Amino acid sequence: MDRDYYEILELNRNATDADIKKAYRRLALKFHPCKNKEAGSREIFCQLSEAYDVLSDARKKATYDKFGDEGLKGGIPVEFTSSGAWSSKYTYHGIPEKTFKQFFGGDNPFADFYTIESALQYSSLVVGVEKKQDSPIERDLPLSLDDLFHGCIKKIKISRRVMNEDGETSSIKDKILTIEVKPGWTEGTRIVFTKEGDQGPNCIPSDIVFIVREKPHHLFTRQLSDLIYKARISLEMALTGFSVDVETLDDKLLTIPINDIVHQSYKKVLSGEGMPLPQDPTQRGSLILTFDIEFPEKLSADSKQMIKQALNLKYSP
């Protein structure tokens, strides 16, 4: 039995290309198996896809308009093709999902809870069909204290599975992800690349997350936005005074005089010489000097006596 493709799409024979697209969009969404579970909806969906496959193609449509379903599927003599008609025998591939995917750009336009009005300029229908997203892929991003002080650019190559154009097969492809490290970033900062994981036909690609891990530094220990510098000094220096030279991360040489008597819990704080603040890199934390005092392993009796006299302590034999 001949099929009336215009009737299937609820169109008259004067329908324009825009009318055909609009009709297929409306009816394909209405009878799509993900939305319509009524008996016979699958068959209607197939008929709609075949009708659109024919009427959206200028040569097939020209053949159908002049010779009908029989001429389209049975073929017509070459001499009748001057009007641009389809001369070969037409057979629909029988995969309505393929037609649907080519039209909408995906297997299921409802999958991510987009409104059809937003995605297709059709209506405000929201359909609760959800693709499941894989769990995030987390990787460490080791950075030196210098990287975190100045900021830098890191380029990381990843290999991931990407769907091919047929929507069914996939291949492994490399991609370069660029991370702009901001001055002042701290341990544990997370950089998220949305949906950059492996692609699959029925899932949303996972996010790739890089987590900042701070490498140890040979001079400084970090505490939030402060830098701790430990100087090793002798007992003599602790009691009589001294100065400390510190080369900072921004290549300055600070000479810091210490005139106080230094004990084990003594700290010297220099404001504005620490790490940039993450929320405002123009501001900086403090450089904090702590001290490790070396005591002599032994003293002679004379040395002990001299120390006691210097400290003005009474000698008890």
UniProtKB/TrEMBL annotation:
Which CDD domains does this one have? DnaJ, DnaJ_C
Q: Tell me the compartments it is located in.
A: Cell projection, Cilium, Flagellum
InterPro entries, per this entry? DnaJ_C, DnaJ_domain, DnaJ_domain_CS, DnaJ_subfamily_B, HSP40/DnaJ_pept-bd, J_dom_sf
Ordered alphabetically, the record's keywords are: Cell projection, Chaperone, Cilium, Cilium biogenesis/degradation, Flagellum
GO MF terms listed in the record are: protein-folding chaperone binding; unfolded protein binding
Q: What is its main location?
A: other
Give a GO biological-process term: protein folding
> Per the record, what is one GO cellular component?
cytosol
A Pfam family that this protein carries is: DnaJ_C
Question: Which stretches make up the J domain?
Answer: 4-68
Give the transmembrane region(s): none
Report the protein's function: Functions as part of axonemal radial spoke complexes that play an important part in the motility of sperm and cilia.
Subunit record text: Homodimer. Component of the axonemal radial spoke complex 1 (RS1), at least composed of spoke head proteins RSPH1, RSPH3, RSPH9 and the cilia-specific component RSPH4A or sperm-specific component RSPH6A, spoke stalk proteins RSPH14, DNAJB13, DYDC1, ROPN1L and NME5, and the anchor protein IQUB. Interacts with SUN5. Interacts with IQUB.
- Mind telling me which PANTHER family this protein's record contains? DNAJ HOMOLOG SUBFAMILY B MEMBER 13 (PTHR24078:SF519), DNAJ HOMOLOG SUBFAMILY C MEMBER (PTHR24078)
What this protein is called in its record is DnaJ homolog subfamily B member 13
Specify the species.
Poecilia reticulata
